Predict the 3D structure of the following.
Amino acid sequence: MADTLFFQSIGELSGALAARRISAVELAEAVIARTRQVDGRVHAFNSFDPEDALGRARASDERRAAGGARGPLEGIPVGMKDVIAVAGQPLTASSKMLAGFVSPYDATVTRKLQEAGAIPWGRLNLDEFAMGSSTENSATGPTRNPWDLTRVPGGSSGGSAAAVAAGEAIVSLGSDTGGSIRQPAALCNLVGLKPTYGLVSRYGLIAFASSLDQIGPFARSVEDAALVLGAIAGHDPLDSTSVAGEIPDYRAELARRRGPWRLGIAKEYFGAGLDPEVGAAVQLAIDHYRKLGCEIREISLPHTKYAVGVYYIIATAECSSNLARYDGIRYGHRAAAAAGAVDLYGQSRAEGFGPEVKRRIILGTYVLSSGYYDAYYLRAQKVRTLLRRDFLDAYREVDAILTPTSPTPAFTRGEKAANPLAMYLSDIYTIGVNLAGLPGISIPCGFSRGGLPIGLQLIGQPFREADLLAIAQAYERDHDWHSRRPAL
Amino acid sequence: MNYEAVIGLEVHVQVKTRSKMFTRVATGYGAPANTLTDPVVLGLPGALPVLNRAAVELTIKAGLMLGCTIAPVSKWDRKNYFYPDSPKNYQISQYDQPLCLGGSVEIELPGPARNVMGEHKRIPLTRIHLEEDVGKLNHFGHESLVDFNRAGTPLMEIVSEPALRSADEAFAYLTALKAIMIYGGISDCDMEKGQLRCDANVSIRPAGASALGTKVELKNLNSISFVRDGIAQEIRRQQAVVLAGGAIVQETRDYDGQTGESQSLRSKEQAHDYRYFPDPDLMPVQVDDAMRERIRAGCPELPFDKQRRFQSEYQIPYTLTSVLVADRGLSDYFEEAARLCGKPQAAGNWIVNDLLRELGAARATLADGKVRPAQIAALVGLVDSGAIVNQAAKEVFAEMARTGQSPEAIVAQRGLRTETNADQLEEWCRAAIAADPRALADFQGGKDSAINAFKGPVMRAAKGKASPQLVDATLRRLLAGG
């Protein structure tokens, strides 16, 4: 039986749209109705604008009627994490600091999606300024996991994950600084891809940690993720860190790349703290690849143990500077009764930022301070180089690396909120990928006995997303985890 | 005890690019507030900087003109501090890997007299780096408003070694630096528009000592004269403190050019920790040999090199060269005129004495003026060939400056050509001798200068158009009985 409209894949929907079995307006209406039906419980959205979406859907239908359909994403609603600028729409980073701020400009990914005919849809909740792993650190309240509303959807892109899992969007965009796409994808039974650093423009993405941030898709299949990646990837003259290079047709490449591949397993990713059910599911996935004829090799990534420490130095250092612009002077929250500029800064920021953001700003300010810079920031950058070298050494032997995405399935709301360190460790398997600038994807690989999704992470080689997606699809093709839907 | 001053200057020079340093928005001065802005300039959420290559190339050009070493790799750092004129609350700058290292500025100290060249000296530079300018705060009663038009304008910081020893040297340094920047097309250096700004680090020490004294940073030196006066005042202030038995406090002082006094802004303890770190939004700048040599090929001759060349190549005096090389356009103008007429001294005289006076009176620039180098050359040629006399030439020049006509046309129109009819001249000379028997007697009595008494009447008769040499020769021939 076919899924209801809002649970269908891009392939199915674009076929139906092309055959005029449905219109983009009907699709948008289905997604809007679904959002109205469930978002009171899920709270994936900070806000959404049905009129705007319907207007864009009408324009899409008109283009199609005029023979100007723009490709497979034409008319597809794409949920937008509330850190990605869409002209005329709120841009809040789920922070009181940016409450009421409306972006005057489009992010490059927004422009590219529109050029592909897609409909930017809604403002999706996140941990404030993308800092967190549970989407509990939000000024608008926590997002709930559609698979179990008492649990977190992961984070920071929890809204982007929950929306796609709950049928409130067909696909969505998130951003990933230390696992913020892959971990919520794992916890919500989705495909989540963090592209190679530099593949997707960051222009118009609210910066958390500039050297780690990448925008990527959430989808309910590898093919959908490939289609969205193809639309948003590519060099952008407005982002100096974006890299020039040909962008392949990722969907077409899926069919062309059939393996077998050499896959690496690193013992450092299967140590203490790994939930046995997660470990078992990942082991089954590894066994499946072996059955497909892939060669499974033991590899070592010896600097992995430093990843969390290095990450929390580099990411906080960059964020302390990136978030300095939120000062109440030009835009955003301004304290009402400040006496003078210094007081205005202090009060506006004290009122505007939540506790996790403040904690990281303070950490970052500390590690960059005179006298500490060499011991922390500079040393962390050196270790980062070693971490990247670990991976590049491994890629002389293997095509990709298989790991769990998250050490545990979704945890309950409040479980780790009071313990920042426990929360930080939920990104232990995803952080290294950002530090090394590599592509990483999480795909569904089973469920716990309690019915919670489990994710498999595949880590690829720089700018070889086509291979990574093909390897992921080789597993997906033989399993139906990704086709399961939460009961809402 | 005698004290000597030790001065280092930090000069900020706005680099003359069409667009800002990290975005395509235009640079400019005097536009309505906050119109030269975009998401990047305003530091909106999600905006990213993209480097303006022209700003880098002009900075490298400045570095090459000043003899700096150009770093093969330099990088961008964030200088973190909160201030309302700073849109991101960090400034993109260069901390430990600037574009240019070393180099020097050649300066000329005041000579013993205006027309005598002073001593030349090289002031070594520490570095030149590139950064973005900040916005401007405007205060109205209890309100302050920010204009971000200036924010993001490329700004070079040229840092000298503490090698200047007097306020006069600082003045000479800035004068020379400004001339070089203008020569290179790197900046217009208009201090009123904030295109050149200067901070000075000043300390004193017992004359001949090698250790440095405690330094004071002087800010807001808004004109080259204020730089000189502010430094001179600061040296006097420090000497007075020390002579009174006090100690200099390391601090930043604000100099007020109107009152000639300075006030403490902040002490060392209040100094910022800028938390510099490499900007992750920007890639390092790589300058290879080919790029460096291409930029070097576009560097003009430096003013003092040109002055030395003018002196040796054209054999013209300091009084002319010092004026001609002060402006690159004027020196080019002179060279073209000199080349066309082959008489550098005469061309230089016309340009320095007549052309500049004329332009000054009309408040016009060289480009505005109607007199082109070819006309100067033609005028020199007419005088040199004897076709017109000096007095007529002055008239020709005035008319040329007014109308832009060629000197030949003016000479023809006004009938200014020298009287060359020998019979006519002889007739005027005979008449003059006959009219003044007393002078004739004096001359014949051996008083040679008595001949001058005849020249006035002859010139009057010739309406000024007779060649003085020809008049003299004719008179002598007649007086000798020829």
Remarks:
- The two ends of chain A are 18 Å apart (CA to CA).
- The domain at 6-264+396-483 of chain A is CATH 3.90.1300.10 (Amidase signature (AS) enzymes).
- The mean pLDDT of chain A is 96.
